[in-house]
Amino acid sequence: MADKSVTQLQTLLDRQAIEHILTTYPRAIDRLDLDLLKSLYHPDARDSHAVFEGTAYEFAEHIIEFLRDMFTSTMHHVTHSNIEVHGDIAAAESYYDAYHLLEGDFDKVAGYFGSTYAERCRNEGTIDAGHEFLCGGRYIDIFTRCRGEWRIAEREITVEWKHFRPVTRGDSGSGIERVVAPAGRDLDDVAYRFFTRAGKARIV
Questions:
Q1: How does strand 149-166 pair with strand 41-49?
Q2: Are residues 131 and 113 in contact, defined by beta-carbon separation less than 8 angstroms?
Q3: What is the pLDDT of residues 178-203, one digit of tens each?
Q4: Cα 142 to chain center, whole Å?
Q5: DSSP secondary structure letter of residue 127
Q6: What are the sequence ranges of the domains in the chain?
Q7: Which residues contact 50 (CB under 8 A, 6 or more apart)?
Q8: What phi, psi does 190 have (nearest 5°)?
Q9: Continuous H helices in the chain
Q10: Closest CA to 30 of 184, 139, 159
Q11: pTM for this one?
């Protein structure tokens, strides 16, 4: 019984460590934190990410630059995960949805969403309003434990739905228009400040 309890406890701790990596990924992506993103993968990990196929470190370099250049803001959500641990290897299936805000001129909108959409938005007078891209799918991962630490060894994603539309904004002076609490896309974001402050706290 004692051995079984120890095994069950270790499995819970392993799952917790893996879930921490899965939920840290959105912070790395949305705050454009390249070092944090790389830290979630083993150095020899692979990532098959829709239009990208290569090493995880190559993906990290590519995606941070792409998101910085293409979008004004992003927000990724990991909604729930199914994790199976088998010793020093684990498989995880995590559902996600993601929000992206693109702001730019006709050429930028057409380059990403297509000229048909861009022409329609120009005719409707919404081409300069900003454009939202939403999508959802799953992260499918192999995790391995090396030197006592879990990291992603292989990732493949699915994109199972996607939608894009012009941004809708409230009238000037309206209640919804005044609801503004912007996030930082760097290490000055409030989350980093709060976590740093908590880490420096000492119990007296």
A1: parallel
A2: yes
A3: 888 889 999 999 999 999 999 888 65
A4: 17
A5: T
A6: 2-169
A7: 157, 159
A8: -60, -35
A9: 2-30, 34-39, 56-70, 106-113, 115-124, 190-200
A10: 184
A11: 0.92
Residue among 93, 117, 98, 97 nearest 107 (CA): 117
Contact 34/64 with Cβ under 8 angstroms?
yes
CATH of 2-169, one of 3.40.50.150, 3.10.20.740, 3.10.450.50, 3.40.50.2300: 3.10.450.50
- Overall residue count recorded for the chain in this entry: 204
pLDDT at position 179, please?
A: 85
Cβ atoms of 126 and 164 within 8 Å: the answer is no
The angle, 0 to 180 degrees and rounded to 10, between the axes of the packed helices 56-70 and 2-30 is 40
| Closest to 148 in 3D by CA, of 19, 10, 25, 56 | 10
What residues contact 165, with CB distance under 8 A and at least 6 apart?
131, 132
Helix (H, G, I), strand (E, B) or coil at 98: strand
| pLDDT at 3 (0 to 100) | 78
- Residue 145, by phi and psi: left (phi above 0), alpha (psi -120 to 50) or beta? beta
- To which residue do tokens 């799953």 refer? 138
Is beta strand 89-102 parallel, antiparallel or unpaired with respect to 149-166? unpaired
Which two tokens mark 164? 């894009």
DSSP letter for 40, please.
T
Token duo for residue 184: 């930082």
When pLDDT is cut at 50, 70 and 90, the band that residue 160 belongs to is: very high
